[in-house]
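hi! just following up on the protien thing from before. the input was this:
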Amino acid sequence: MTPKTEATIYLADQRGCTQVDWYRSYHTFNYGTYFREHRRPFRNLQVLNDNTLKEGSNLKQHVKENSIILILPIVGSVRYKNKSGIDSLIEVGQAHFFFASKDSEFEFSNLYENELINFLHIELSTHLQLSDDTVQKFEFDLDGNRNQLIPLHPNKEDNQHQNTLAWIGKFKGRQEGTHSLKNASTGVFIFVIEGAFEVQNRLLHARDGLALSNIDAIEFEALSNDAILLVIE
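and the predicted 3d structure came back as:
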């Protein structure tokens, strides 16, 4: 008997928030001093932070366990730097994957003089043992590949997407789509970056998230123009 699909919605206006005059972060899951019983991590997806950083500011972060870190700029460029010598400027239209070992630290920076930046900071715990200077970059064109999910390749040689962790796409209103999971047992997390979607008959607005378990494929429909969806397995 096939297990029943389990679903949990993470509404944007119920996220945790850390804020000072130069930095604001919305936490989809428990993070830092923010804790709610119903906001525990989803499987190995430990962190999904929606960060805004003021011009000229630096933000240090600490990793609790071996993790693959995905940085996805939404507005402006963000600098990522760690103590192993990685110093990378990540721009809109790029996804950078980093490995961070347990108890290591890294830093985000906004190099602009008069502009805020906004970016997603995502961490997935991993059993892999890699070096902290491991970085993989992927560029994507949302406008040139509308109405489809683009695989963000940690490994460009992975033509079958077996090691792909995330997909992103921009859709016009009423455009429908599907996504088949590599492994139904791993679960999938959907995050709306912009606009509104209906995913598996559930309405999601900007910065809402949806965790699904025991499912082979997802079906979705964009409910607004230029709606952007992120899918994480």
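The mean pLDDT is 92.
DSSP finds no helices and 21 strands in the chain.
cheers
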